[in-house]
Amino acid sequence: MTATIDSPRSGKNSSGKISPQYRRTGASRGNFEMFAWLFMRLSGVVLVVLIFGHLFVNLLVGEGIHAIDFGFVAGKWADPFWQIWDLAMLWLAMLHGTNGVRTIINDYAEKDSTRLWLKIVLYAATTVIIVLGTLVIFTFNPCPVVDGVPLPGGFCPA
């Protein structure tokens, strides 16, 4: 009795069935995966700088964690530098995480339709969070006035 072993790249597993990753249809996406891989490395390095800068300013400078309140955020976001800093952190973190989850979906979702719907939900959630986060950063008003009456806060000028 002779046993034959399939070539490792033949797409067949030990039971003779074709592995799911070899059944997928669709043309090659060119260099997209290479750019996605490169984006993960570069955005990870930039995120480390952004996050440690964020933590340093919020937790170590001044009174530390005891100073963080609505007024602290309002004062920080009054400066365009910190708006751009937080915006970059939001966008990079969301896109970095989305790319990672996209990779996980590609690795573990076997059916094309499942993969499609999971990615639709992922991209929709990412878009909503990025749009809402961007709106919050740029439209934040620490001293809102409703119907001509300033809302109480104790930190807004009268």
From TrEMBL:
Biased composition (Polar residues): 1-18
GO cellular component: membrane
Matches recorded under Pfam families: Sdh_cyt
Membrane-spanning ranges: 38-61, 81-99, 120-140
Keyword Oxidoreductase on entry: no
Signal sequence range: none
Keyword entries, A-Z: Heme, Iron, Membrane, Metal-binding, Transmembrane, Transmembrane helix
A single MF term (Gene Ontology): metal ion binding
Annotated spans, Disordered: 1-22
Localization annotation: Membrane
Protein name (Swiss-Prot/TrEMBL): Succinate dehydrogenase
Source organism of the structure: Pseudarthrobacter sulfonivorans
